[in-house]
Amino acid sequence: MSSQSNIEEGDDVETKRQEEKKKQQKVPFWKLFAFADFYDCLLMGLGSLGACVHGASVPVFFIFFGKLINIIGMAYLFPKEASHKVAKVC
Hints:
The chain contains 3 helices and no strands. The chain is an all-alpha fold. The longest helix is centred in the middle third of the chain and has 37 residues, at 38-74.
């Protein structure tokens, strides 16, 4: 009798899992934008552009910061020349 009840409980668990899968409807990616108007598209475009600019700013910062550190390191050997170069890079 207990094996029969285990089978029934297993079936109940399986049917619950199938029902949960049915409840979780998946939406295609492009369907997410079905109700977007011009203003929404404009804001998404500006946000994407801003994200690209922000992502590109970090490597550019590292280039300038590296140059500045090199010039400050050279200031120990050539202090008069370095002050002009530091002002130029800053």
